[in-house]
Amino acid sequence: MGRWIRDNGLSLAFLAIFLATLVGESLVGLAYTNEQLAQHRQPSIGYVDYVTSSDFLVDVAENWQSEFLQFFLFILATVWLIQRGSPESKKPGDEGIGSEKDQLIGEHAAADSPRWARVRGFRLWLYSNSLLLVMGSIFLLSWFAQSLAGRVVASEENAQHGLGEVSWLEYVASPEFWNRTLQNWQSEFLAVGAMVAFSIFLRQRGSSESKPVGVPHHTSSVEAD
Fold first, then answer.
1. In this predicted structure, what is the pLDDT of residue 206?
2. Taking the model in full, what pTM does it have?
3. Is the predicted pLDDT of residue 224 greater than 60, yes or no?
4. Which of 22, 84, 99, 199 is the most buried (most CB within 10 A)?
């Protein structure tokens, strides 16, 4: 068990951080919601009611979809685009999907290569693009969940002001929806771009996301190896 925890320490650490912050968000969100209800002289709600509400779902899904869009676009962009000197990039000249030999596909597969790396046809295509497909699917599902929950919240707010219910198409075409969405997108794209650019000139000793300290700025980690 100790070795399994060590071998999976990075995933487990971020899973624990994610769960802790999600619980923290739910507790703070519940307190804020009940504070707003008290100001309007309405009864408070319980924890279960809050975490199953559209208010909580729209806030969670709004952040998830922007995060997975960020990774989807970054994975796709790094197939074809390079940034000389960044450890987040392939070296110049390696743009593209790579040869079957480089990718250990088919007859070039190693003895311990994944089984679907040895086959041809649709299964090979699916496995070859599985990371991009999963990231894109989670983005779309999160975006759709955000739009559904946001529509419910918008309709509830309209009802409080004597206005009619909002349809799904009306909500996803509204400034409110895209204001919330683009606020998250721009911050994610800035963070990714900053990581790519800063890692050319800055170092963090011991991190796999950084070049070795003494590697020249114009050299990527791949070239250094």
1. 86
2. 0.85
3. no
4. 199
